[in-house]
Amino acid sequence: MYKSFDLRRHVEIDEGYDEYRHLNPLHEVSKSLMLLGYPNLLAHQTLRVASDGLDRLIKGADAVLTREPWQMPYVLDNAPADTPVIFSSHNVETERFADIEQPLFANSVQRKIDQLERRSVEETDAIVCTSQTDAAVYRERYDPGGPVLVAPNGTYVDSLRKHRPESQRAGHIRSLYGITTEETVCLFMGSNYKPNVEAARELVGIAREMNSGEERAHFIIMGSVGNALNEKSLPSNVTTTGYVEDRFEAHFDAADIALNPMISGGGTNIKLIDYFARSLPVVSTPFGARGFDAEHGEVMLVSELAEFPRVITSLGSDHDRRQALGDRARRLAKREYTWEASSRALINFIETEFDLT
Q1: Sorted alphabetically, which Pfam families does this protein's record hold (predicted)?
Q2: Mean pLDDT on 243-257
């Protein structure tokens, strides 16, 4: 917002969907903790000093849906008693921040995270999770104050499409990175976020192992996650792209296999749904596949990291299996993992549960 000099306080996103923005620098200062790997623990306190009209919007709302626990104390303290407050959780934050890299105040930070998450689960009128796994954790760890809805992460219907490895744009990407036609192209994408960085480093080790084998594979690491890797130490069969915008879709078509080597983090991996939507066959760790109701071999292959080289080699040489996996994955995404479907379920849940029709 500040970088683009878009200082509008009220933006109409779509019909019936308006965005009200805060422009107080205090909110940006409070986010500085995030640079050290901490969550935005000061958000609710900053709002008490500079609400930018949020208190007025809360008091005039029929229901309040609050994403993540960081603002929740302010919302709960300002919402009228008869206004339902719904906690929208994208991760189990106590798990996500269980291993904070910065040792300074780590224990007190983790206690604070637990306090905020507990209050968000126990004192709200309903909870929305992205997976049954997260919902089960909340039920086991806390005492939910209301019903729990699972509304999965998703992709847009417009993103659902066939894989086009023979397209001109796919060939351009392969040529751009010096990838031969004999190499199996493996794609991993992600932002510069600790669990993604850990996964990318594991992938570099796998690439190094496969670089000396007879069956050749080339690994494309797309997104800002590549910025965290030491470019000089990467094996020759690894390409990092940094942030990609103009040729984003072309990278999916250039890939033969999509990889999800996640070993840490919270919530569900949206990247999996992005792979599914574009009909890519996926190889994932069991951890990366958590929260998805997908059997091994049906819409993706689930394997421990140690087995990735073998699985990649086998799948890379089997075109028909790759195509079958990708087609089934796309159909699953269309059936269960679109933002449109999740949004309809969420709206219906809120209207029905709180008699807002």
Answers
A1: Glyco_trans_1_4, Glyco_transf_4
A2: 96
Element (H, E) at 105: none
Distance CA 129, CA 88 (A): 6
- Which run of H or of E encompasses 330? helix 319-336
Q: What pLDDT, on the 0 to 100 scale, is given for residue 266?
A: 74
Report the alpha-carbon distance of residue 258 to residue 162 in Å, rounded: 14
Q: Does residue 3 lie within any of the structural domains?
A: no
Q: Higher pLDDT residue, 52 or 169?
A: 169
Whether 2 shows a pLDDT value over 50: the answer reads no
> Taking 80 as the threshold, does the pLDDT of residue 296 lie above it?
no
How many helices (H) and strands (E) are present in the chain, helices listed first?
A: 14, 12
Same-domain pairing of 310 and 186: yes
Q: So what's the pLDDT on residue 256?
A: 98
Sign, Cα dihedral of 94, 28, 20, 18: negative
Question: Same structural domain for residues 127 and 269?
Answer: no
Is 107 among the domain residues? yes
Q: Which domain, by its residues, includes 141? A: 10-154+340-353
Q: Is residue 109 part of a domain?
A: yes
Query: Looking at residue 305, which CATH number applies to its domain?
Result: 3.40.50.2000
Q: Rounded to two decimals, what is the model's pTM?
A: 0.84
Residue 87, in any domain of the structure: yes
In the chain, helix, strand, coil percent, each to 5? Answer: 45, 15, 40
